[in-house]
Write a structure and sequence with these properties.
Blueprint lengths: L4 E7 L3 H11 L4 E5 L11 E2 L3 H7 L3 H6 L3 E3 L1 E5 L6 E4 L8 E3 L2 H14 L3 E4 L2 E9 L4 E9 L2 E12 L14 E4 L3 E9 L8 E7 L2 E7 L5 E8 L10 H7 L5 H6 L3 E2 L4 E4 L3 E4 L2 E2 L2 E3 L5 E2 L7 H20 L5 H25 L8 H8 L7 E2 L3
Parallel strand pairs: 1-2, 1-11, 2-8, 5-14, 11-21
Antiparallel strand pairs: 3-7, 4-7, 5-6, 9-10, 10-11, 12-19, 12-23, 13-16, 13-17, 13-18, 14-15, 15-16, 19-22, 20-21
Helix pairs in contact: 1-4, 1-7, 7-8
Bound molecules: flavin-adenine dinucleotide.
Flavin-adenine dinucleotide binds next to helix 1, strand 2, strand 3, strand 9 and helix 7.
Amino acid sequence: MQLKDFDVLVVGTGPSGSVLAKELARHCRVGLIGRPTQSCRRIGESLPAAARRILTDLRMWEEFEAAGHRRSWFRRSVWGGPDVFERDSILDPDGAGWHLDRDRFDSMLFDSALSSGVEYGDSAWLRRLHYCEGDKSRRWRCEVETASGLQVIYSRVIVDASGRSASVVRRVGARAKRRSKMVCFYAWFDECTQEHIGATLIESAPYGWWYSADVSNSSCVVAWHTDSDLDCGRPRNARQLLDLARDTRLISSRISGCVASGALHVAPAHEQWATPASGLDWLAVGDACLAFDPLASQGLLHALVTAQEAAASVLAYIRGTKESLADWDSRVQVILAAYLLQRCHFYALERRWPDAVFWTRRHKFEVLESAIDDND
Ligand SMILES: Cc1cc2nc3c(=O)[nH]c(=O)nc-3n(C[C@H](O)[C@H](O)[C@H](O)COP(=O)(O)OP(=O)(O)OC[C@H]3O[C@@H](n4cnc5c(N)ncnc54)[C@H](O)[C@@H]3O)c2cc1C
């Protein structure tokens, strides 16, 4: 499709971009750019049960429910001590959450945006941004790469929904700050034991922590989170990931005797935030404004909520409430402060390895609010 001029251009076709574009398309002309499919299989995140409320608000609950994502009935963890702690979803007022099929989830949100009238630039990728200010009008000049070559799009407002790459944030003079070098190694396995069906497993270890969720009654995903600069036997394939997990208590009891059903994947998993998260005629949502440590299990909920709230801010701005974009940064600062408190609390609970670098770094976070500039 030949893209032209928009009121709002949204960069990124993940959950935050699709939801924001859909919400705005009822009111103004919205363009959406990005690539429709992921180059590698996503881990399949846990979605908290509270997401039902926002999916209902977004008029997508029935469709989501019909998609049959696997329920996550309880969480078992070994954290802060050798014992297994279990939390049943019956204790959660919202009930059980889900272990998502990310392709299916992202496609549902994306298709819903397109059927709401959003104009989509197939495989268009943001390359350059320039702010044009004339006597009578201001707008963004966006150079995007498409299958048929470079294209220029104009838009009054631009929204960064490009995830951790924060493609707009880094191009408008804002900073993407990060405070860890966390990476996640993950792979899928078949022929798992029947011991933890329906459970999400979390387990700490001297060099990081483990996550596992079942994707069927006999297959599961196993993920290892550590810092990229630590020498803790970086796995090079799924077999080595399995070997690393042998020393664990919970994870090993799920994968004993199982076989790898695919390759090993690696994903950046550091926490990151934009400073500021909005400015003159732009704002950031989802991971582009604040990407959590995966331990929080809140990234997708945050993507949906910020997309919905930011859509209201952008609409108010277009309709003449000048301060609504500047206010967006204050909103993100509130979320960031609450997140940092929670994150410090959970890492502080694990004190079994006082000399292990992975943990001393996290405990230092409690007193030292240092962040690395990640714009380079
Ligand atoms: C290892 C790991 C485990 C996680 N576990 C959980 C969990 O259990 N629960 C949970 O809720 N969350 C979890 N998360 C977080 C969750 O994956 C993210 O919060 C969520 O994907 C954010 O959605 P988003 O739409 O903001 O960004 P994304 O899903 O990252 O989408 C961004 C999109 O923008 C596109 N893009 C980037 N640059 C450009 C450009 N220049 N032009 C056009 N398009 C561009 C990308 O291709 C991508 O499609 C986890 C994350 C990691 C890394």
